[in-house]
Specification:
By secondary structure, the chain is mainly beta. The chain contains 3 helices and 20 strands. It has a 6-stranded antiparallel β-barrel with strand order 9-12-11-10-13-14. The protein has a 4-stranded mixed sheet with strand order 1-20-19-5.
Length: 350
């Protein structure tokens, strides 16, 4: 054999998803490793096997404290944007969102702060409403919910009289912190109707007792930080920073946003869809080989990336035999009877 040259660029050759992984899905014989659903892999050619574990998404929540003593005819604002890539770099995507206070204020500082927050929220929602709920951060007290236990975190509540809509970012049995994105529930005995955080099914009702504006603009991320075809136009948790009249110290991360990975429900949305005539990718990330298995909603998966060295094909004679690197992806459902044994078997291939 001649000199060995290596092409470090990897390409994904095959991927397979196993909903009931067992150790028997892996076998080695006659010089080849065989993993269910994948083509045989020559012994000695595996360079590495990496394992990625699932991460549950967490909706991020930030507050921006409004100026304590607002001034008339003064510009107030924040900087807002989304990272461009997996690196987390915000790049040129930051937008300055600002309003100017009227020449005559109300004379009540808290009311003026609320007006500034409401005006900023309106502008943010018009531009970024697909990705964030911006509104007035308020604390409310209420009677016992039915069923008992309080409103679900991230659930939507609606005022029966006012029609105001808000999203719950903190909750106890008889209190909640709510980001009101449409109107505000002012006070009194207004009926509150809550929904489950995920599917919109009615989850709780209660009677309002009090509402108090916290002095903060609330920014709650919409669930689903990334989609395969980027229809959401964003990838990561948003950046919120200083703007006119509002320092960086006014921004508080109350709940750190976490991008979820290897979650069955989300993976199901991103399954590869191909054109029936050309086989070209129409949408999605995942094109699983064999068996017709697809992710199970509500489940989680491990991802094993197997990097393999493979001699590249070359026409004619050459003193250099290049080596290419290819990758196989194996998705294995967690918490199944055979998952632990499968995990040991596949990692032992190196």
């Amino acid at each position: 054999m001649g000199n060995l040259a290596t092409n470090d660029v990897e390409k994904v050759t095959q991927s397979v998803l196993l909903n009931l992984p067992v150790a028997g899905d892996i076998a080695t014989a006659n010089g080849y490793h065989r993993i269910k659903g994948l083509r045989p892999i020559r012994q000695g050619s595996i360079l590495s096997i990496s394992k990625q574990t699932p991460v549950v998404e967490v909706q991020g929540y930030k507050t921006v404290a409004m100026p304590t003593t607002p001034l008339a005819s003064t510009k107030y604002g924040i900087s807002f944007g989304y990272p461009d890539s997996e690196s987390g770099s915000v790049g040129n995507s930051v937008t300055n969102i600002a309003i100017t206070t009227p020449s005559v204020l109300t004379g009540t500082a808290l009311t003026d702060r609320q007006n500034i927050a409401a005006a900023l929220a309106s502008r943010i929602n018009r531009k970024y409403g697909y990705a964030v709920y911006a509104g007035l951060a308020c604390t409310i007290t209420h009677g016992a919910t039915s069923p008992a236990g309080g409103f679900a975190l991230y659930s939507k509540i609606t005022g029966g009289t006012s029609g105001a809509i808000g999203y719950v970012v903190a909750t106890t049995a008889t209190t909640a912190t709510v980001v009101f994105v449409n109107g505000i529930i002012s006070a009194g005995t207004e009926a509150l109707s809550g929904t489950a955080a995920s599917d919109g099914v009615s989850a709780a009702t209660a009677t309002l007792a009090t509402t108090t504006f916290t002095g903060n603009l609330g920014l709650l991320d919409v669930a689903g930080y990334c989609s395969a075809d980027h229809k959401r136009q964003r990838v990561f948790v948003p950046f919120v920073g200083a703007g006119a009249g509002i320092p960086a110290s006014a921004v508080t991360v109350v709940i750190a946003g976490v991008k979820g990975v290897l979650q069955g429900t989300r993976m199901l949305d991103d399954v590869h869809i191909a054109d029936r005539f050309t086989d070209n990718l129409v949408s999605g990330l995942y094109g699983f080989a064999a068996f017709g298995e697809v992710p199970v909603a509500g489940s989680q998966y491990y991802l094993y990336k197997i990097t393999v060295a493979e001699d590249a094909s070359m026409g004619g004679n050459s003193s250099v035999v290049p080596e290419s690197r290819i990758a196989f992806y194996v998705y294995a459902r967690t918490a199944q009877a055979g998952t632990a044994a499968f995990d040991s078997a596949i990692l032992a291939l190196t």
